[in-house]
């Protein structure tokens, strides 16, 4: 279920919200690189439900290239045979403003409410309903 949530969170197009429209080069370069998902969270009836990804799930990779290309490989260990890639995606990303990125892949467009860097090696994709996915830099 958590693995499907990650895909759904990135695929689902969220409603637009008013945010800082200034464009800062500082975060522009931070997204470029290879990232792994480490946690996600949902809010059910106002109660947060946080989940830390296991070792297999953290083998997943999300690559953001300087030319705007995007690629992901998602791992799961729900099969009795062990950890394996269950989903791959390719597409593009485009910074809309300081904290919003548009993702287009597999024919879908997603614009989360915020893409927020906690530090140079950690960022979150966030939605106004409290849902998020957190990533750590691999390289």
Keywords:
single chain; 139 residues; mainly beta; Lipocalin; ten-stranded antiparallel sheet; 2 helices; 12% helix; globular; disordered N terminus
Write up what this structure looks like:
With 139 residues, the protein is mainly beta. It has a single domain, classed as Lipocalin, CATH 2.40.128.280. The chain is 12% helix and 54% strand. The protein contains two helices and ten strands, in the order H-H-E-E-E-E-E-E-E-E-E-E. Strands 1, 2, 3, 4, 5, 6, 7, 8, 9 and 10 form a ten-stranded antiparallel β-sheet that branches. Strand 9 and strand 10 form a beta hairpin. The protein is globular. The two termini are 28 Å apart. The N terminus is likely disordered.
Secondary-structure blueprint:
Blueprint (H helix, E strand, L loop, with lengths): L1 H10 L13 H6 L2 E12 L2 E6 L8 E4 L4 E11 L2 E16 L2 E6 L2 E3 L3 E6 L2 E5 L5 E6 L2
Antiparallel strand pairs: 1-2, 1-3, 1-10, 3-4, 4-5, 5-6, 6-7, 8-9, 9-10
């Amino acid at each position: 279920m958590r693995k499907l949530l990650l895909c759904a969170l990135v695929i689902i197009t969220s409603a637009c919200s008013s945010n800082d429209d200034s464009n800062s080069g500082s975060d522009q370069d931070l997204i470029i690189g290879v990232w792994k998902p480490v946690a996600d969270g949902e809010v059910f009836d106002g109660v947060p439900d946080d989940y830390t990804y296991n070792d297999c799930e953290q083998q997943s990779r999300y690559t953001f290239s300087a030319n705007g290309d995007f690629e992901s490989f998602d791992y799961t260990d729900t099969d009795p045979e062990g950890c394996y890639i269950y989903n791959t995606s390719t597409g593009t990303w485009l910074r809309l403003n300081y904290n919003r990125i548009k993702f287009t892949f597999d024919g879908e467009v997603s614009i989360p409410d915020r893409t927020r860097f906690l530090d140079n090696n950690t960022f979150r994709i966030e939605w106004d309903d409290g849902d998020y996915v957190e990533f750590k830099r691999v390289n």
